[in-house]
Amino acid sequence: MCPAMARTIRSAVAVLGAGSQGRRLAYMWSSRGKDVHLIDAAPRQLTASVEAVQKFRAESKASDGFGTIRTHAPSALAEALQDSWLVVECVPERLSLKQQVMSELDGLAPEDTIIASNSSSYSCKEILDGLELRHSTRVLSAHTYWPPETTVIEIMGHDNTDPSLVEVMMMRCAEHGFSPFHVRTDSMGYIYNRIWAAIKREALLAASEGAGTPQEIDSIFRGVLQTAKGPFELMDIVGLDVVLDIEQHYAAARGDIPMQPQQYLSRFVQKGHLGVKSGQGFYTYSDLASA
After folding, report:
1. First CA to last CA across the chain, in angstroms?
2. Does residue 111 have a pLDDT over 90?
3. pTM for the model
4. Where is this site: Important for catalytic activity (predicted)?
5. Calpha distance 173→176 (Å, rounded)
């Protein structure tokens, strides 16, 4: 059976990592009646994710039936991959971990299964550097922001990615409610994130220098650009530990990044003030249900 035909027969999507992004992807990929395998080592994370998906569904106006969210421990990963045409890694933003996961997925997934990384700062080219994979042509990046509220997804391959798989992803993402964009060259931070990185870095630098407080900077940002949220509010939603990981990656890769934004973020992270998910970040949150 040719890979394209096998991929058509396989209907499920596997999502590795049931955190903030994983649960949102589980909702999106199950929104057209297809099952999603959600894999995570933490049972509480899986339970919270299923509850979050149910909440998204209750708030949705979608008329199509939803697929089943099937939760698994990592020991069941191989089995979950057998009927998956796509697997998306949503593990924490650490290169060594992502490389470990990518090698494992390449060894376990059927050869026609597309392997995608949802990394926000590491391109699949960076993740694959130094790895010996059986089928590197089926690996690509598929980065989302905050679905279902923000439906943009950026699809980016590497030098050896099969172009037909980019076309498959663009089509199927659109079918599942995403707004797909093709990043046509290897781009650190994709398209939006490289622009957003400059905005948040300057916001952090301005706050670290005492030019304005996070609240004041957010207020002027919203007032001028007429946006719903300012940069510090958005960083709180993403998670300040994640923001710090990304900023450190940019600094290591580029070499021209100032240290003050990282040092400023570190003060919050060291206190456990991670944003919405911890109840305290640049702002204080009393309702942790949305974390």
Report:
1. 44
2. yes
3. 0.83
4. 143
5. 5
